[in-house]
Each structure stands twice: as C-alpha cells, then as structure tokens.
Amino acid sequence: MLTAEDKKLIQQTWTKVQEDFGGEALERMFTTYPQTKTYFPHFDLHHGSEQIRGHGKKVVNALGVAVKNMDSLSQALSELSNLHAYNLRVDPVNFKLLSQCFQVVLAVHLGKDYTAETHSAFDKFLSAVASVLAEKYR
C-alpha cells in the first residue's frame, strides 16, 4: 500500500500543514457536500466559525497521529473509530469526502510543493485513514 517513498513524502509534507487546514477542509466539505452538515446540528457553520476551526484542529491533530503511526493505523486510530462508529454514528462515506476536501486545501496552500507524487501518496494515506475509521462499522 504505502511505499517507503510515499511515507517519506507524507512526513515531509506534513511539516508544512497548519492547524487551520482542518477548518478549511471542513468548510469545503460543508459547502460541496451539504448533507454532511447533519452531523453538526449544534455548530455554527458560517465561514470562520470558531466551532469549525476548533473541530478542524481536531481533524489535523488526528491526522498528525496517523502520520506518526502509518505502520499501525488501526491501533493508533482505534478510539477515534469507536467514537465515530458507536457514539456519533457518522456515515463512513463522509471520511472519504473530507479526505478529498483536505487534499484540495493541501493543493491550494502548498502549490508547486504538492506534486503529483505527493498527491498520490496523500490519496493512498487518506484512503487508509478513512478505511481504518470505517473498520468498526463492519
């Protein structure tokens, strides 16, 4: 799945990721896929909302844990998977939608540093994260 080169590209790129990327990705997801808003009925979903920024930081932090634990994603994200499957009951397709939006944010902010190879590595990585988060649904 993830090659040694993929892992290296992800780790190098991750050093450029900022906490506000998560909030931007969430805003993009809510705009592009409005059905995802149903999981956030208590949030202020307006642009720049403190709640979206706060949840976005959680997303970036969770992805940071995944970057540090690429060889043991299931173990590293087990609690998060439990939370989303059993407590929040989030439709697992939303993990893929957020992954797509996160990649757009990376491309916008990183520009020429977000090469085709980096995009491919992140696509595989975020797909693996989405798969792990959906494991408890089976």
UniProtKB/TrEMBL annotation:
CDD domains named in the record: Hb-alpha-like (cd08927)
Gene that encodes it: Hbad
Protein's organism: Nothoprocta pentlandii
Single annotated GO MF: haptoglobin binding
Family in the record: Belongs to the globin family.
Pfam families: Globin
PROSITE patterns in the cross-refs: GLOBIN
Identification of the protein by name: HBAD protein
GO cellular component terms listed in the entry, alphabetical order: blood microparticle; haptoglobin-hemoglobin complex; hemoglobin complex
